[in-house]
Amino acid sequence: MLTSQDIRFSVAPMMDWTDRHCRYFHRLLTRRARLYTEMLTTGAVIHGDRARLMGYDAFEHPVAFQLGGSEPADLATASKVVADFGYCEVNLNVGCPSDRVQNGAFGACLMLRPVLVADCVKAMKDAVSLPVTVKCRIGVDDQEPEQALFDIAGQCVAAGADALFVHARKAWLKGLSPKENRDVPPLDYALVHRLKRAFPKTAIAINGGLTTIEEMRAQLEALDGVMVGRAAYHDPTLLLSVDREFFDEAPRLADAFMAVEAFIPYIERELAKGEKLSNITRHMLGLFAGLPGARSFRRRLALEAVRPDAGVDVLTSAVDEVTSAMARMRDADAA
């Protein structure tokens, strides 16, 4: 069973972004945030290279796994694999609007089939003792959001879902790209608040459009948790505030410079295994956002980390761009 503390702050599952390197880095920045994998389909889990696709470092915990699929039996089988790998939760994707997901008849398409979603949740619950959760939209296409959201929520709760994560926007399956679906449809936070009042015993977190700590804390007056995606990815220093602001705990690291130092041993281990530096440092490009030298930091990493022989010195040199720019600014201010 999940509590409000378990889902009080989560980093959203994001395709091509929240891989194992990203999650390790995010865990350095916050002890308490709940982290999620990228979505993986049931077919990939059942038939794919599990060690490569599902492997993670124990340091990442608490880390949850997001599944994509619409066949209850396959979701049950895949959930067992997820449980065997030691993840702390399995989440069903009912919100992704991409063409690839639509062609597979899952993701946001499932908003149109709430009874099937309930069957999927029940099959997953029957298969594993892990918490089973659902991430959904407030509707798709011409659905009336109040009816669509309450219908699918009711079905999921009745089937035993342990928590709901609601992206407070509709998804338009035709006419909008996945990127546009994250920005164009209007947000309706009040609808998600009404959902919580209707299902007070169910843990409910909100996702979509939250960019500041103040906005996130305001949502916790009505809901159990917030799930943050792009804001945390593009400016990872936001995560340095999570433990203090949401859990009344001292942060693990004081600033972005300490985060780099803490990440270097992991990077060295991965490079020794044959990993490319750019596959790791691409998740750090926003680390110094807003500071002098941030653009030079990003540029150096983007250009030099892709070299076949790129090592940790590329990262430290990129950080030097920031420290040098800050020193020049201090000198100018003192003059």
From TrEMBL:
PANTHER family, per the entry: FMN-LINKED OXIDOREDUCTASES SUPERFAMILY PROTEIN
UniProt-recorded Gene Ontology molecular function terms: flavin adenine dinucleotide binding; FMN binding; tRNA binding; tRNA-dihydrouridine20 synthase activity; tRNA-dihydrouridine20a synthase activity
Protein name: tRNA-dihydrouridine(20/20a) synthase
Names of the cofactor(s): FMN
Residue span(s) of domain DUS-like FMN-binding: 11-302
Catalytic site positions: C96 (proton donor)
Marked site (Interacts with tRNA) residue numbers: N93, K179, R182, R295, R298
Biological function: Catalyzes the synthesis of 5,6-dihydrouridine (D), a modified base found in the D-loop of most tRNAs, via the reduction of the C5-C6 double bond in target uridines. Specifically modifies U20 and U20a in tRNAs.
CDD domains linked to this entry: DUS_like_FMN
Similarity comment: family membership: Belongs to the Dus family. DusA subfamily. Belongs to the dus family.
One Pfam family matching this protein: Dus
